[in-house]
Amino acid sequence: MADLTVGLLDTSIFIARETGRPIDLHSVPLEAAVSTVTIGELRWGVLMATDDEARSRRLDTLNAAQRFEPIVIDERVAAAWALLRQRLKGQGLKMGVNDSWIAATAIAHGWPVVTQDLGFPEGIAGLQVVVV
């Protein structure tokens, strides 16, 4: 059973904040964590910005995410990732590689993924998703 007092914030939560997309704050767990994968995705967004305004906005988003101590990919996360990928294949489901690393991080720590991304399929053992 996932610990609903802590949630792993997916990259989409930070993008929602950046773009002004509403977030259902009542559904967000009391404590939050961030994967190093999210930090990487946000850093890539800064590098890919096409103008100074977008770069500045994206840098602010990256800085907000970096206020959290990033959860690293370790042996436990790697094992959860391999099992997750096997389960996805067995059920004929797809998930992006970065999303699967974020999901594996959440699974390894017993946390739900807090997201606005519909790329996290339902019905995967060990994966709990909170859509906000």
From TrEMBL:
Please state what class of enzyme this protein is: hydrolase
Keywords assigned by UniProt, alphabetized: Hydrolase, Magnesium, Metal-binding, Nuclease, Toxin, Toxin-antitoxin system
Q: What is its EC number?
A: 3.1.-.-
Instruction: Please list the cofactors this protein needs.
Output: Mg(2+)
Q: Which residues bind Mg(2+)?
A: D10, D99
Domain PIN stretches: 8-121
Which GO molecular function annotation, any one, does this entry have? magnesium ion binding
Pfam assignment, any one: PIN
Q: Is Nuclease there in the keyword field?
A: yes
Task: Report the SUPFAM superfamilies cross-referenced here.
Answer: PIN domain-like (SSF88723)
Q: Of which family is this protein a member?
A: Belongs to the PINc/VapC protein family.
- State its role: Toxic component of a toxin-antitoxin (TA) system. An RNase.
- What is the protein's name according to its record? Ribonuclease VapC
The gene designation is vapC
